[in-house]
Amino acid sequence: MLSELFIIINIISSIIASSGNFIDSKKPIWIYNEQTKNPLCLYTSGFYDGIISCEECGNSDNYKWYLSTTADDNSIQITSALDTSSCISYNDNNELILSDCSDESVLYYDDIFKNLEISDKCIGIIDENNSDSYPYINLENCETNSNILWDFSDVIPSKAVTPTKTTTSTPTASSVWLYNENTELCLHVFGYESNIPTYEECGNTDDFKWYYVKVKEGSFFKSKDNPELCLRVDDEDESKIIMGNCDANAIFLYNNIYKSIESKKCPDNCIGNPNFSSVKNVKNKVSLYDCNNEVRDDQMWTIKKSLPKLKPTTTTIYKPTQTSTVAWIYNESSNSCLYGPDYENGIPTYSECRNLDDYKWIITKKKEGYYFKSKSNSELCLKMADENKIIMGKCDNNALFNYNNNYKTIMSKYYNDRCVGYEKLHSYGVALYSVTKKSVTLYDCSEEVNDDQMWKLTTSFPRKIVTTTRTTTTTTTTTTKSPSPTINTSYRCGKEFNNKSCSKGECCSKYGYCGTGSNYCGTGCQASYGRCNDGGRCGADYGKCLNDKQCCSQFGYCDISDAHCGLKCQSDFGLCYGSDDRCGEQYGRCKGKKCCSKWGYCGTSSKHCGTGCQPKYGLCQ
Known about the structure:
By secondary structure, this protein is mainly beta. A hairpin with a 4-residue loop joins β14 (175-180) and β15 (185-188). The two termini are 49 Å apart.
C-alpha cells in the first residue's frame, strides 16, 4: 500500500498552475478513517441526494472516489467513481450527500490535522460503537476527536497498515514549527537523547522543526534534527520533558481549540513552563504541569507550516522595552497612600502620604500587565502571597496586576474578580477617613467596587481635598434653587464637595464620587450633580450601560439582543459582539445563545458553559 504522502504528491504533481479551476486526478482513491476499531471508508449508493455513509472498506466503485484540486489552495472536490458528475455535498441536517458539484461541494483538507472541512465544519463519524448498524457520518465542530481524522489511499485500506508503526525514521508528514504566540518563541531542541527542549527565538534550521505524526492513541512530535527521537515524558520524573524513544511516554494530545499539548501518560498536564521568564532571549526549558482548570499562555502552542514571523515592534500597545513611571498610589476616600516596606515579605499598608521613596512606586508596564515596584527597593514588587494576602516580594508572575483606569482598581492578573483594598475595614462599616497603617489585602470586586479599592495613580504629591463651609448672612430673599454646579476635576462631587458636578455621562454617587457603574448611578445617586437613571439608556448623553453585561445600541439603549450588540453597537458605552467566536474583555460578547469559556472562546459545550464560564460575555450553565 502506498503512503498517503505519495497520494498527495501524485495529486499535486498533476496540477497545471496556469488556472484556478478544479483539475481531476486520474486514479480512484479510498477515503478512510483508520482511527476507528477497523478501517472505515466513505460509501455511496450512487443515488442523487443519497446519504453518504461509512462502512468497512470494499473494492467496488461504491467505495472509490476521485479528487479534484486547484493550484491556488488546499480546496478540493470529491466525485464518486459511480457518477463522476456528482460530488460530496451536504444537506440542511448536516448530513453528507451525493449532489451537484457546486460551491457547496468545495472541501478543504488539512494535511497536518487530517481534517476534511466543508461549510466550516469537519466530517466526523457518529455512533462508531453502534452494534446494530454501521456508523453514519455527519458535520460537526472541528474539535480534537480521532473520528474526524481522514487519510487517502490508492489501494483498499486494511488492518495491515497501522499508524502506530514507528520503525521508519523519516515520517511522511511535512515538518512544522511549534510556536508560542505569547512569547513569540518556538520550541527548540538539538537532536540527541535526553536533551530538554527550550523556548527560543524562531529559526529556520532543523533543530526548530518537528514532524507532527498522528497515531491511533494521539500524536508523536519528532525532531527533524533527529527523526528517531520524540518529545516524551521522562521515565523517572513525570514533570520532565526530554527527547527519547517514540513509545507510550511520547504520545501527546494536541487540542486545536486551546492550543495545548497534553500528555497521554499524564492526563490534564500540558507542556509549558510555570516559571517562565519574560526575557525573550533567555533559554527556558519546558516541563509538564497542570492544565486541568486553566491553560496558561506558556502552554499554548500553534502549529505553523512556515517560519513564524515576529509581530511588528512598532506597535504602540506592546513595546520591546518596558516603560516605567514613578507615582504615588493614592486612595482618595481615606486620603491615604499605599506604603511599601523595603524588605521581603513586608505587608503594604494604607498610610498618611509622605514625600519619601517608601511611599513611591515604580509602575512598570509589561506585556502581561503591570509591576508595582517599591522605589526604596526596586528589586521588590507588590505581589500575591495567596488569593487574599498581599506582600512585598520578587517581581515574578504573582506580582503582575491589571489597572482599570475607569474604576481605579488594582486587580489581580490571575484572580480577575479580586482587587487590592482593605476588606475588614469595609466589612465593619468603619469610616476610612481616619485610617492609618491599615494592611491591604485582596478581596472580591466582581459585583461592587468599594471606596477602599479605588486607587489613583498620581505623579505629583497627593493633596487632601479640603472642603469648607461658608457661612454668609443674607438680608432678604430666600430661594430653594440649588447652587449652580461646577465641573469636577478631582473625581469628587455633590453638596458636600462645593456642589461640584461630574463630567458628562458620569453619575455622582451617594458618597460623592464620580463614575459610571451601578455603585455611582444606582441607589443614592445625586441627580443634581450628574446622570442618574435605571440603566436603560447609554451613549454620549448618558454614559455606559449600568449593567456591565449589556450592549449599547446605535440608538442609545441597553440590552443583549442582536440589535443592541451587533451592527453599529457603541463599544465605548457597553459590550459588543466579538469577532471569530472570541469573547472576553479583549473581544466582547458572544453572538447568540453561546457561552464564553474561561479562555475566551464562544461555544455551547460543557467546556464553554461550565467551570470558569464568563457570564459577563455570554450565557453560562
